[in-house]
Structure formats: structure tokens, C-alpha cells
Amino acid sequence: MSAAAGVEAAGVEKAAVLLSEARDVTLLAHVQPDADALGSTLALGIALRRRGATVRVSFGAPDHMPESLRPLDVLGLVVPAGEVPMAPELLVACDAAEPARLGVLADRLGGASRSVMIDHHRSNPGFGDVQVLDPTADATVVLVHEVLVAMGVEIDTDIARCLYAGLVTDTRSFRFAGPASHRLAAELVETGMDTEALVRPIMDEHPHAWFAALAGALQRCTLEPELGFVHTTVPLADVTRFRIEEVDSVIDVIRGATEAEVAAVLKEIGERRWSVSLRSKNAVDVAAVAGALGGGGHRAAAGFTWTGTSDDLLAAIRAELAKNAV
Ligand code: 5GP
Ligand code: MN
């Protein structure tokens, strides 16, 4: 066993003990939570609630649950950020690569009596009293599953759906999944959950009105063949009008450009404010690009936020791509 895996195994045991003993648990996902972050917090939350603990799940922004992930919250555990106590008894941060990814709730880390961090980002500097950090895990839900097993929790269909949602999305429908994730998926499916009914709204469905906006984004999509770089924008009007499910689907279309190694979508979130999604096929480490520009992520999927013009933003990405060229 590698040293990293040993550290992680100890973390899993410690996290399981803390969670098993806790009477009041606050579980936090990162801002703009995805299926891995919410699947992780809700899987733990459901298990703890069923054991009688007081449980709340929350995230710093936005002020509502992503619509497609609402069916995961079968026990109604999600509360607005404002209802998270300033000094939680036990705080658990899931899928957050750094405290800042908790947004306005990052200050609760300092106020918490005890804290547990569960994450799989290589860039994670480590935080929290107990750390379950394993960059080799395909998704944070994989680590949450280990903690649940260490706690002796029986994985029922409600918990399985939460874990599967994180697994299928973070692995791009199992294309980035190792054998352990495929085995875990089999175990989750064996609980009797309906994978298609769970995944379709999360990964495939969009309102018809979105298609015109998507067409606009594709028309603006620009290829820079010398850099192997493809990019487009989603204007504020579309970011405001459509759900995050729609806006975040653009990157999955343009990343397919045969000529490009790296894809970027610049999402306008305010006056000269941009949320940027980066994807690479493999040769370029976009986590390094995002890291240099104030964000982070994984080798093949990363992001950051930026203030300024889109021209300056593209120039900054180009400069980083040139540095990271292979
Ligand atoms: P997305 O493009 O889906 O918003 O983000 C892709 C990945 O990049 C996420 O899984 C997350 O790990 C990471 N990421 C996105 N934005 C940020 C950011 O501002 N800071 C850090 N550290 N990671 C980010
Ligand atoms: Mn994740």
C-alpha cells in the first residue's frame, strides 16, 4: 500500500468514528454544487439522519438547489446558507478543493468544534481536523462510500442514488472510471436503483428554449488550431435565463472539437465577471492553467473566476497554455 493510501485509510477510520459519535452534523458542499458534492453530503446526511442525528446540508451559493439534483434530497436535509450555525458541532466539507470553495460558509470551518474534509482534488492543500483526501479517487463519493462502510451503514437505494449520481458525472459516464469505480457502480445498482431515471435529468435533459441559446454559443465557438484551443462564451442574459444544467452543458459539446486539446467556456456572471470552465483531452493539465489564474480542479476538468474583459481573459489562458504546452 502506498503512503498516500495509508494516510487516507487512517482518515477514513477517524472520520467514521467522529461521524458515528456525532449528534449534530453540518455537511457542506462547494459553491455551485455538482452531483459529486451534493451526492457526497446527502449520502452521509441520509445515513446520519436515519441514525437519529440532527443533520443539515448546505452550500455557499446559489440560494437554491440545482433543480436536477433535488430528487437526491429525499429527507429534505438541505437548508439555506444563512441557517448554518456559526459554530457547528461537527462540520464535514465534501468535494471542496480548498476552504475558499465553501464560499460564504468558509468561515464556519474556523467556528466548528470539529471538522472533517473529504475530497479528491490533487490541488487540495489539506484542511480540517480529520482529512480523507485521495487524489486517486475518481470522485468524492467513492471516499464517502468508504466512510459509510467503515461506519457500518447499510447502503440503501436512497444512499446509492446519491453516490451513483456523483460517480457517473465525475467520471463522464464511467469513461474516466477505474476498476474500483465500476465495482462500486455494480454494488450501487444492485440495491435496485433506477440508473436511467436518476441520470437522464442530471446529464441529458434541457428545455427546448435552450437550444437557440446553445446554437448561439456554438456559432460563437472559435478554434485556434495553432494552440489546439477552442472556446466560446455564454452571455449574462443566457446565464441568468437558464439553469446551471444548461449553461454548464456547453463545455461538453465544444470539448468534442477534433482539432482541439483544450476547451474553454467563458460564462458571464456579472459586469466584467466571468466563471470559466476548462477541459482537456489529456495532454494538457488544465488544473495548472486554472491554478495559475486563481482557480483549480483536475487535470482534465478545471475552472476559475475572472474579472476583466473576455479578450484579456482569453489572452491570459493563451499565455498559460503556451507555458504548459507539451
Ligand atoms: P466546472 O467547469 O464544472 O465548473 O469545474 C470543473 C472542475 O474545476 C470542478 O470539478 C472543480 O474541481 C474545479 N473548479 C472550478 N472552479 C474552481 C475554482 O474557482 N477554484 C478551484 N479550486 N477549483 C475550481
Ligand atoms: Mn468531484
Keywords:
five-stranded parallel sheet, alpha/beta, 2 domains, six-stranded mixed sheet, inorganic pyrophosphatase (n-terminal core), globular, binds manganese (II) ion
Task: Write structural notes for this entry.
- With 326 residues, the chain is an alpha/beta fold.
- The chain folds into two domains: 3-202, inorganic pyrophosphatase (n-terminal core) (Alpha-Beta Complex); 208-323, Roll (Diaminopimelate Epimerase, Chain A, domain 1), CATH 3.10.310.
- The chain has 13 helices and eleven strands.
- The strands form two sheets. It has a six-stranded mixed sheet with strand order 6-7-8-9-11-10. The chain has a five-stranded parallel sheet with strand order 2-1-3-4-5.
- Helix 5 (157-170) packs antiparallel against helix 6.
- The longest helix has 19 residues, at 3-21.
- The two termini are 32 Å apart.
- The model has no long low-confidence stretch (mean pLDDT 96).
- The protein binds guanosine-5'-monophosphate and manganese (II) ion.
- Manganese (II) ion (MN) is lined by residues 36, 95, 120, 139-140, 170.
Quick structural summary:
The protein is of the alpha/beta class.
Secondary-structure-based class equals alpha/beta
Low-confidence stretches: none
What is the global morphology?
A: globular
Note the run of SSEs as H and E. Answer: HEHEEHEEHHHHHEEHHHEEHEEH
CATH architecture verdict of the largest domain: Alpha-Beta Complex
- Corresponding CATH superfamily of the largest domain: inorganic pyrophosphatase (n-terminal core)
Total helix count? 13
Total domain count: 2
CATH topology group of the largest domain: inorganic pyrophosphatase (n-terminal core)
Task: Please tell me how large the radius of gyration is.
Answer: 19 Å
* Averaged pLDDT: 96
The first-to-last residue Cα distance is 32 Å
Can you give the helix content as a percent range? 40-55%
Q: What hetero molecules are bound to the protein chains?
A: guanosine-5'-monophosphate, manganese (II) ion
CATH class descriptor of the largest domain: Alpha Beta
